[in-house]
Amino acid sequence: MLRIYDTRTRQAEPVPVPPGRVVKMYTCGPTVYRFAHVGNLRSYLLSDLIRRVMERHGARMVVCQNITDVGHLVDDAEIGEDKIVMQARAEGRSTLDIARFYEDAFRRDTAALNLRPPEHTPRATETIDLMIELIAKLVEKGHAYAVPDGSVFFSAQSFPSYGEISGNRLEDLKPGHRVEGADPRKRFHADWALWKHSHRELVWETPWGTGFPGWHIECSAMSLEYLGDRIDVHTGGIDLRFPHHEDERAQSDSAAGHEVVTRWVHGEHLLFDGRKMAKSTGNVVLLSDVADQGLDPLAVRLAFLEHRYRQQMNLTWDTLRAADRTLRRWRQRVAEWAESPSAPLSQEHVRRAEAAFDDDLDTPTALRVLRELERDESVPPGSRFETFLHLDHVLGLDLSSDIGKVKVLPPGAAELLERRARARQAREWAESDRLRDELAAMGVKVADTPEGQVWT
Ligand code: AMP
Ligand code: ZN
Q1: Residues 113 and 23 both lie in one domain
Q2: Same domain, yes or no, for 225 and 275?
Q3: 402 found inside a domain
């Protein structure tokens, strides 16, 4: 069974597969006003890994990942400008144009990283009715209040367990913590807007007045609609813990009358060359930049897997190039092993790697098992082949992509390669050199790497 660290309970918790097998997961999706950088993509890999591990355990995953195309304001402050509206003005295009353009780019990037598409990808602008309905319900239940200008606020004090995810309890929140701290329309300084009165672009009519939704209510409305009021896992980047997820939890739980999300899971930030990857600091690498360097986009995925999702991780061009080399070598080896007689999985390696996946997604350990297996000449090549492909269902590295693409070895060469590998393990250097010459005569060039011999 997968055990994963729950930010709210502050410990690793089991994620069981229920008798009906359906497991529901919500992932806070992108704000589509710019290209996602690889830091953003690391957050979505977390959700993909949970899906793949749970599917291994027989779960039928239903994942909802929203598209935020309205309501996310600059700096997360409630009086900033809408990110999409701002970008539309900067590029001289319509908001719809901007949102759809970057949504398409996001889909391409996530596909290139082998992130499985979510079952539901609702857009905020197309689910405004759900938000209005939810806000009305919260007002009716006394959790929210409308003010004369046509805005609606959530009453933070109506939700006593506020702060359980991040530890930011209401009594510790100082007035003015948020830019809107001094907003005279609010009854309490930590209340937040569910609906914002406005006559700008991209607004809707409501019973309270013209305006647009707050970012937090979007996720509550879409998750409750597409997954219902029992959600097994909710993921996002670590910066979303507060206020986004605290506010979302307060809204959803107040509407449902019970705890909606069982496990809150957060991925740590990506640094690049030692600094947090963020557009605001100009420290951004896109997946297209990686491809422009001649590297496989999946080298990014492999580089991420070398670290646990809960560790901050520093990426550099050197680590990406190293990951790219490993990826190419593994694909070539898998293609080589595919030429050998088939053999059963190496159960021992599978068990260790899968135990690592289950242990709060310990992917670095799983990759170490793979490296060990790669070098282990006592395991038949056919078995290494099966085991690599089996584990690749979770790793998602397309390790079988070179099969049939590589030149097929001339008859007898595979056996000579195996004999040479064994000779090297037995430190019989003269025999190993003799076999290399014999292979060279057949047109097969062998190079020795720390992970074993590689032929071309
Ligand atoms: P956004 O599109 O800005 O709403 O962000 C999308 C996701 O990326 C959110 O889950 C963020 O928490 C996450 N995120 C932003 N910056 C980073 C970073 N440097 N490393 C990892 N995740 C990040
Ligand atoms: Zn969200």
Answers
A1: yes
A2: no
A3: no
State how many domains the chain has: 3
Instruction: Confirm or reject: Cβ of 237 under 6 Å from ligand 1.
Output: yes
Instruction: Evaluate whether residue 36 is within a structural domain.
Output: yes
CATH number at residue 189: 3.40.50.620
Q: What range defines the domain where residue 56 resides?
A: 3-267
pLDDT bracket for residue 447 (50, 70, 90): confident
Determine which residue's CA is closest to atom 2 belonging to ligand 1: 30
Q: Are residues 255 and 294 in the same domain?
A: no
Distance 68 CA to ligand 2 centre (A): 9
Last residue of a domain, one of 223, 240, 267: 267
44 and 31 in a single domain? The answer is yes
pLDDT score, position 343? 96
Q: Is the pLDDT of residue 78 over 80?
A: no
Confidence (pLDDT) at 80? 80
In this predicted model, which residue has the larger pLDDT, 180 or 376?
376
Q: Is there a single domain that holds both residue 188 and residue 301?
A: no
Q: Is 452:375 a contact under the CB 8 Å cutoff? A: yes
- State CA 51 to chain mean position distance: 10
Closest residue by Cα to atom 23, ligand 1, is 40
* pLDDT value of position 323: 98
When pLDDT is averaged across residues 168-189 and rounded to a whole number, the result is: 77
Residues 263 and 275 placed together within one structural domain of the fold: no
Q: Is 239's C-beta closer than 6 angstroms to any atom of ligand 1?
A: yes
Residue 103 lies in a domain: yes
- Rounded to the nearest angstrom, the distance between the alpha carbon of 29 and the centre of ligand 1 is 9
Which of 26, 31, 32, 40 for mutating ligand 1's site (highest number of atoms within 8 Å of CB)? Answer: 40
| pLDDT-derived band at 76, boundaries 50, 70, 90 | low
Q: Is the model's pLDDT at 189 over the cut of 80?
A: yes
Domain boundary among 238, 267, 296: 267
- The pTM is what? 0.89
Centre of ligand 2 from the C-alpha of residue 328, in Å: 36
Task: Using the atom order of ligand 1, give the atom closest to the CA of residue 240.
Answer: 12
pLDDT of residue 340 exceeding 60, the answer is yes
Judge if 316 and 346 occupy the same domain. yes
Establish if 260 belongs to a structural domain: yes
